[in-house]
């Protein structure tokens, strides 16, 4: 008889040993998979106050319970660790085909601790585990590494998640790449991997994935695929996330020149409508995905041949408008460079944007930049700095490799005022000054300035709320989405399944068909709330304070300069009002700490003592 | 050598005679075609103050210069007349294949005057013109008529534009139907046709359409078809205009229960996402259209068999939410009924919504309604009243057949306060109280409450302006779109070609390729302004005054009751502020009258004397 249960592979790089842990139905129901498993494993395996780049910090990979089934967009995986960029929960999601491979090899999660003496990579060959020498791979770029491992093993069907030079050199926003175009991009998970001398995690999964109700699952997924023909997925299908450039531009929500402006004079030239007919050569889909949002661009140039890249909206903002670069081939090249070097294009672009403003204001002279003319719009300079960051070259490279928070604290002279991050994580391309629900949602995200943990912009940009007016009721809306998306991220569905798999009724239906459990909608909702609270508790354990959620100073001080949102900003008072309403809605203390009562309610009483010095 | 020139067929139903007029390049360049030709012909051929239902009121059909070419979405036609519903410019656009047939028969426009003694239809058989007996067709429904004429002529390739019983019985918002699913719906053009004892205009066009630069046109149109793969057309392709129900609902912009509410509790059940998988059986495209927005629904019922209809967003609002009917099969049936009876579903639904509110408030008792329980949500009652309107049955049918303006004036007792129209034309489904640019745009439309003459909602609903704040600058935005869309409607392109053919550069390119002219962008823009000013001058000649543009009382008095737009309305002061700014932007007098200077500038000096009693 089928009984769904999770299997976790534990790896100790100090000893080279591995072991397998089985987790029971109770654990699965409480934490679902993916993000839920990840945060629980992080809470359990990371010692409080662990050095993010020290051997004791665990690096955790997890997939969802639907991985390898026919559920649409279920091919994602997540990486957890203590973030070297924020000091709080580190978390990054990727997609492609690596997650499916891990599941087919028999695992739901991998927990990696310790540090290898010399460069290695892990090979999970179904149930055979080995640690292999990576001396020849060390120093290779992330994309090349994927190919070299395939060649070495002699099988095109192995899937690797690899770091590039950025991860090796401990850039605090280094990422992990798989399937060439997909990255676990944010919070510096690649630096943690590099700190362990671990170049890649390679998987060959050839087993089959069993579901409780095969016929029911197939029938239901057929329906879901039909629903996938919705207008929203249609936009991503036809133009990819590149479509968002002009949507943001029209709403004066496209941060430009390090958020000095919110409308970009060259936006049209880096928007999907313009890019698509000129450079898009192929659209790709991840495992089990009927959308295929990945619009691969190929730019032919005289000097250096052809550059192929997968340029998402966030990169068009961070490396484009935010650095005032409006010539698409330049952005394409910068993205390719970031991907090869293995550093997050959002954090890279935003940190460079900060440095460009420092240069503009005379705080970074040519002496500080090793002679680079770091003015806004200088694409050549941008590429030089990207290389300096990845290799921690020079004073500038070393400073910027720390991210905009630490860099601005190091430089000082008021430059913190235009460092565009929350909790150290650089903001994505949504000008929060005219998106007030998002201002709450992005800044209360447990991993820092982030658009994915509740996607508040869905309310603001589609006019479902008055985006120019801060309201207490946004507390409840953000909380509802936090919890809902905790399940999306634990089932490990793509956010682009909006409209297809986006409420508890739908979550429970597919989850029960696959697992054979009898979860109710309320139990699922509570699991979402539990996961969110556990993340928060983790952050509180690592020193989170109310002020850490406050938006970057520029969001609270410098109004938007032009366009429909002209004059708008989010005052500290407005943010506090929404923030307090959010805490209240969550049943947390008025300073935002999960109460004993709330933790007990969610079956998290066992952590209450750790985060509460005294009873409340 | 090819020389583009227009040909107009003049028909006199009093005498049964016809004649052909050729128009020269100068006329074409000044008025472009379609709407431009229509308003110029109306101005020339309608005597001032003409009785809209008298024989002297001309009924004008016109197509655009791109009809019959490969230009995408160019298969539309327009009908002009003095409106029996508004007393101002009557104008209604339809699509399908009728317009192409007229062009292939050799004509750009048909002007019909006089009145036949007995029911007839016109048959334009390429260059052979005849008037045929329609005694056997009189009383038949509009859809049946199209088939009966095909049978009579014995050719499936003839295209007819026909009226139903509504037009025969002079319902002031009767429409004209072609190709089964397409209607020239608004302002009562079907009543004018009925007043002439004219059942149909049938065309067999077998000629070819010549263009100046064949190769250039083909190449360019190939590019345009590629661009048609844009996200916006994608939404209409996948879900039709039915997609708009949930978009409006989410923004609290879906008028409900005669605009007493703006959020409809059953919206989801009449939205595209819900309808599509259940009832849509086929999608249809008009001539030369790569979008195919027509999502035909088929509802099977036990009692009365199957009902097929083409249910657009506007019908889902007018006959659905506005009458509080949330069961899609009911709306489907009501739309089929309106289409067969040949009455405009928007005006029908809004007028019935008004009557339902009168019933709710005790102003229309069962005695007044011939015993019908006219409460909101009663679908059976709605269908009964639709029949009463079309046949002008009973006191209620006669009153409602006049439209909500005249009906409310007749009933009195304050019911004008909830009659939802501008200048007599019932509003489409956009709650203007929270769409303030649209409030200006819809109400300054020359044909009355209309979303198509400038589509101001494109700014409001997509967040390109702050929709909750009235601003002077909307004057310029609305004027810009008025003029631009005057060209769209004169080239006779579909509004859904937004993103494909939507600026003067693109207009000029395709127009010059087809005609061989050398129009500049500025000349084309000025043509748009000219056409708009000529429409306005026509209305001024027929008695237009500033107050005629004011929004319906409810929009200025009763705030939105729930949802994101809760509390919003457009005060008279706000409207006046935008209105005056609009007049100023247009170079009109402060009371909104086109000045001699402006008319002279546009080459319309010849009408200045008619609308100006004295010099200004």
Molecular structure report:
The structure is a homodimer of 616-residue chains. Chain A is an alpha+beta fold and 616 residues long. The first copy, chain A, folds into three domains: 198 residues, Aldehyde ferredoxin oxidoreductase, N-terminal domain (Aldehyde Ferredoxin Oxidoreductase,  A, domain 1), CATH 3.60.9; 183 residues, Aldehyde Ferredoxin Oxidoreductase Protein, subunit A, domain 2 (Orthogonal Bundle), CATH 1.10.569; 184 residues, Aldehyde Ferredoxin Oxidoreductase Protein, subunit A, domain 3, CATH 1.10.599. The first copy, chain A, has 25 helices and 17 strands. In chain A, the strands form four sheets. A six-stranded mixed sheet of chain A has the order 2-1-6-3-4-5, with helices on both faces. In chain A, strands 8-7-12-9-10-11 form a six-stranded mixed sheet. Chain A is globular, with a radius of gyration of 23 Å. Chains A and B meet through helix 7 and helix 8 of A and helix 8 and helix 10 of B.
Features:
6-stranded mixed beta sheet, alpha+beta, Aldehyde Ferredoxin Oxidoreductase Protein, subunit A, domain 3, 616 residues, Aldehyde Ferredoxin Oxidoreductase,  A, domain 1
Present the secondary structure layout.
The structure is a homodimer of 616-residue chains.
Chain A: E1 6-12, E2 17-23, H1 25-31, H2 34-45, E3 59-63, E4 77-82, E5 89-94, H3 98-104, E6 109-113, E7 120-125, E8 128-133, H4 142-153, E9 159-162, H5 165-168, E10 176-178, E11 182-184, H6 189-195, E12 198-204, H7 214-227, H8 231-239, H9 244-250, H10 272-279, E13 280-284, E14 294-301, E15 305-310, H11 313-320, H12 328-341, H13 345-360, H14 379-390, H15 394-400, H16 404-411, E16 421-422, E17 425-426, H17 436-444, H18 457-461, H19 474-491, H20 504-515, H21 521-541, H22 553-557, H23 572-586, H24 596-601, H25 608-611
Parallel strand pairs in A: 1-6, 7-12
Antiparallel strand pairs in A: 1-2, 3-4, 3-6, 4-5, 7-8, 9-10, 9-12, 10-11, 13-14, 14-15, 16-17
Helix pairs in contact in A: 2-19, 2-21, 11-12, 11-13, 12-14, 14-15, 17-19, 19-21, 19-23, 20-21
